[in-house]
Specification:
The chain is α/β, with parallel strands linked by helices. It contains ten helices and 14 strands.
């Protein structure tokens, strides 16, 4: 038995027995308090079990005091086991007030983010300069990668071009060198005019160069070896643009396992290898930019290209998680941009068609237009760009509509089987090559 005193006041005699837990057992406490007034337990809110006995023990959440027997009362030969009173924890009023205040602050920040986003639609933000910065582009030998290289060259960036095809990569490099020569001629002409007018000298131009490396981004060892060469021969990379991509062009049950693995490696896994190679220095300097060229098929899918959609969904997930990790690490100097274009007319999906009545309103994107929109987003540190803007609506509707409703929309637009003509053409081309080679 024991007598509890709450906030310095004894429990009135005759109170109903209370149940107390100690060391996994329950002990009923009853009887007049005069029997053991020498044993007193004082507990505060949120108390923990305290050891009872003849030895004084103080805890952070409670205090146990044992007194010598007196007034003819018998001493406790067998002290009761540790016990504690169980009661509901009370929320601190100050803590509740902090939560309310923080909620209002977060609400204000969310609304302010909407205001800033709307302002960017009305007033075009100023583009940052990449002059003299080292920009690395994967898949630069053709398609969007080549166009990205030309755009960055016009902005005087030092370019590092990666591609598995060395010949096409060198062709891109020759185009870049032509742009550099034009820029140097313009700088020389401007400098001569300034000298003739006795004006101050213009800002000196960088010694612009382009570097090419043959690299299979689908192979981890190849990525790390090429990255080491870049650091040794060029320097630290400021902007990493993951653009390389492949597509198998087979239905799932007809697609060889090797092609599925290849698609996943190039379109998704390569982003891990390239980021791991160049992100550490960016984090050390708190300066850099990582661009992920994904696809609208990384936000919503269609039939016949399961491997491609899975790889692009993976790239989008990787990019978003990386962005959150950089924010959590307070690396605000490292920017990220996710590029998700609709079908681009680069020949990669030649033959892909939606419903002919809808196609005039949603034609394949011109590569130049797609890259210019992406460049604007990159240079203004925009977190995500979907081209055309209709893709934002489609993504939102896909997230909130029932699946059957999405299927109905796909069938109306002709998007449910839009890849079938492309797959048929790829299959026919494969058969022709096998016949030509005598296979």
């Amino acid at each position: 038995m024991c007598w509890l005193r709450r906030a310095g006041r004894p429990i009135p005699p005759g109170r109903s027995p209370g149940i107390y837990r100690a060391a996994g057992a329950q002990h009923a406490v009853s009887g007049p308090p005069a029997l053991h007034h020498g044993l007193c337990i004082e507990a505060a809110a949120g108390q923990l079990p305290a050891e009872l006995g003849h030895q004084t023990s103080r805890r952070r959440t409670g205090r146990v005091r044992a007194a010598s027997p007196g007034h003819g009362e018998p001493a406790l030969s067998n002290p009761p086991p540790p016990c504690t009173r169980v009661r509901a924890a009370r929320a601190s009023p100050a803590g509740a007030m902090n939560i309310v205040l923080e909620f209002f602050v977060v609400t204000f920040k969310v609304l302010w983010a909407f205001v800033l986003a709307a302002a960017k639609w009305l007033v075009r933000p100023k583009e940052k300069s990449v002059s003299g910065q080292v920009c690395l582009i994967t898949g630069a030998g053709s398609g969007l990668g080549r166009l990205f290289a030309l755009e960055f060259a016009r902005r005087r960036a030092q370019l590092v071009l990666w591609d598995i095809n060395s010949q096409s990569n060198e062709e891109t490099a020759d185009m870049v060198r032509g742009i550099y020569r034009e820029l140097q001629a313009e700088d020389a002409l401007r400098a001569s005019k300034c000298t003739a007018a006795a004006e101050e000298e213009v800002t000196p131009s960088y010694n612009l160069q382009v570097y090419t490396y043959t690299c299979d981004v689908g192979k981890r060892e190849s990525v790390y070896m090429a990255a080491e060469k870049v650091r040794r021969e060029v320097g630290d990379v400021f902007l990493l643009l993951n653009n390389a991509g492949v597509v198998s062009g087979h239905h799932l049950l007809e697609c060889p396992d090797e092609l599925i693995e290849r698609t996943m490696m190039v379109n998704c896994h390569a982003h891990f290898w390239t980021t791991k190679a160049f992100l550490p220095k960016m984090m050390e300097m708190n300066h850099g930019h990582i661009v992920t060229v994904a696809s609208s098929l990384g936000l919503f899918s269609t039939a016949g290209v399961e491997d491609y959609c899975a790889s692009k969904f993976g790239a989008v997930g990787f990019h978003e998680s990386l962005s959150h990790e950089l924010k959590a690490a307070d690396k605000d100097g490292i920017k990220t941009t996710l590029v998700c274009p609709y079908l681009v007319d680069t020949g990669m999906f030649r033959g892909c068609r939606i419903r002919k009545e809808i196609e005039p309103f949603l034609p394949p994107l011109k590569p130049d237009y797609c890259v210019k929109q992406a460049m604007r987003a990159i240079l203004t540190d925009q977190a995500m760009i979907c081209t055309p803007r209709l893709m934002y609506i489609v993504t939102c509707m896909k997230s909130i509509l029932p699946f059957e409703a999405v299927v109905c929309m796909y069938r109306f637009l002709g998007a449910d089987k839009c890849m079938y003509p492309f797959i048929a053409q790829r299959k026919q081309a494969t058969n022709n090559n096998e016949t030509k080679n005598g296979i």
